[in-house]
């Protein structure tokens, strides 16, 4: 089971630039809006792209998707852990919670 991170903890880590944020929704959802600095990585692409987009397997990584009902962030986090990433957490509440709190979002 992937460890969780709270909104406040994630906000602080993003501001301190101590975390790599992974958007597990990808595609049009990512283009429309994503957390600051997030990179898109969906489950289908993890095996092929993880080593390129996440070269440091010891880096702090947080995955998220839309809300607690969305399984994507947990699936991507579990796969990254299986590939040897050692500091992967999940922002279970997702982008809906982030946006509802009035925190900044980015667009592509």
UniProtKB/TrEMBL annotation:
The molecular function terms in GO held by this entry are: transferase activity
Any Pfam family hit: Rhodanese
User: Which InterPro entries does this UniProt record tie to the protein?
Assistant: Rhodanese-like_dom, Rhodanese-like_dom_sf
Q: Which UniProt keywords apply?
A: Transferase
What region holds the Rhodanese domain?
15-107
Please identify the protein, giving its name as recorded: Sulfurtransferase
Q: Which organism is it from?
A: Amycolatopsis orientalis (Nocardia orientalis)
Q: What is the lineage of its organism?
A: Bacteria, Bacillati, Actinomycetota, Actinomycetes, Pseudonocardiales
């Amino acid at each position: 089971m992937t460890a969780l991170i709270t909104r406040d903890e994630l906000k602080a880590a993003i501001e301190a630039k101590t975390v790599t944020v992974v958007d597990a929704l990808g595609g049009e959802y990512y283009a429309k809006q994503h957390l600051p600095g997030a990179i898109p990585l969906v489950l289908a692409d993890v095996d092929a792209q993880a080593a390129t987009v996440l070269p440091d397997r010891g880096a702090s990584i947080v995955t998220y998707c839309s809300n607690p009902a969305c399984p994507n962030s947990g699936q991507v986090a579990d796969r990254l852990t299986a590939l040897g990433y050692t500091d992967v957490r999940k922002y279970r509440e997702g982008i809906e919670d982030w946006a509802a709190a009035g925190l900044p979002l980015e667009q592509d």
